[in-house]
Amino acid sequence: MKKSKKSKDDKIYGYNKIAAVGVFILLCIFPLFMTDGYHNITISKYHFFCISAICFTLLSVVSYYTGSGYKRNIKEQKNTTDICMLIFMIACIASWLFSSHRIEAFSGSAGRHMGLVLMLLMIMAYFFVSRAYIISYREIALFGISIIIICAFAVIQYIGFDPFNLLADILKKQRKSFIAFSGNINVFASYLCISVPLFMYLFCTEIKKKRLILYTCTLVFGFFGIITSNSDSGILGLAAAFFIIFLLCCKDSKMFSKFWLLVSICASSFLLFSLLRMIFKSKVRRAETLYVFLLKPWLCAAVILISVTLFLIIRKFPISEKTLKIIRISVIVLTVLIIISFIAAIVYFTFFNTKKSLGKLSHYLRFNNKWGSERGKLWRKLAHAYAEFPILKKIFGAGEDTVALVLKETYGSSIKTTVGQYFDNAHNEPFQYLVTLGIFGVSSYLASLGTAVKSGIKSNAQLNKAAAVCVCVYFVQSLVALNQPITTPLLFIFLGLTRSRSENE
Question: How far is residue 370 from each of residues 288, 380, 417, measured CA to CA in Å?
């Protein structure tokens, strides 16, 4: 009997070990992988993820049929997210079948290689991680180290150095748009929005000093990375991360005090980076509008002073749960009012007061063709194109990653950016899925995200909650970002992590 039990446990352990290796490769090696610098970064990472996902899927199938103990476990883990994800998979297949561009929809060759192949492999990666992987602090630590390496390299490039000559063959006027091992600055911001919030939340919940030291180091370099991305989507994601973590910390006085310490670390990182900019002033890259303001030394110093004071006061005089609940509700109401005011301002300056000069704020408050680096023009054109779709196409979409084809078929050669390039992505993931996968696809996609976040937040394991925070932040920044094989696969890994078992369970 003992021998039989050991054999069964060995099979389960073997499967978990395979999953641990797979998650390590996808979280730590995949973001670092390059073959020819920035020239083929999208296709090289696409191939890396596809090969990795196929290999680990095949290994999981073998383990499923050889591990009787795991078979029983896999049946016990059925959940709503799995059902939504399966429906999303059906939507992807249906979109491809009904598409008039099946070849392009299958491979994603008309866009960023986000075709049916990659969609199916990302869904399989979700099931692989959610069913087989046991979240371990060991892999989390390795993930933190990989973030430190990536962000440290980004800082080196940002201040004017390029040790691996990745920028050597890039035109000088385009070099500011490339950084780190992610390529485009917006893609790098997307990577940080899916990874850094994990450590932000864990920092607020952790009590072990060794882990706190690693989390702090990861956060400092992570905040450095967000500055070097020089992308508004990075700031949007960072704001969303602080807002979500604030709400979660408003349930415990100790966590609430740690939150303000987290704020001080962020402000200190920004202050330190502003000093770094002064030192390398002649070589450093130019900061965009929001970053110029956030890197003001006086602002950083003021935030540090206020946040540290709040940390010490709350530490000395704990706040009751009732008071924390009032604070949480008040902040939610205030945030909603700010969002409504922002939308109202956009409507006012776009339709009613079109002649008033807004300066640099016009990039945010006047929704025209130039809004959001021409996202305004793109979204208007795509919305019109989708409205012209027949009913069947509205339901199932035009086919995976076929935005470029949709625009060309509707507008011809007139739909170009100011630099003469064609749009090939909606630069808004839900909108992208609406056009390419239809109502069926985008609904199942949003349901998958929503149910995964709900289960992760409700979990007793802090690592599951941290993964749920990352999914939320990624979704917020995805409203102005594009899906591609460099960071989008990580979203499905984190969706799986919200459902994974934790080593402390």
Answer: 16, 11, 10
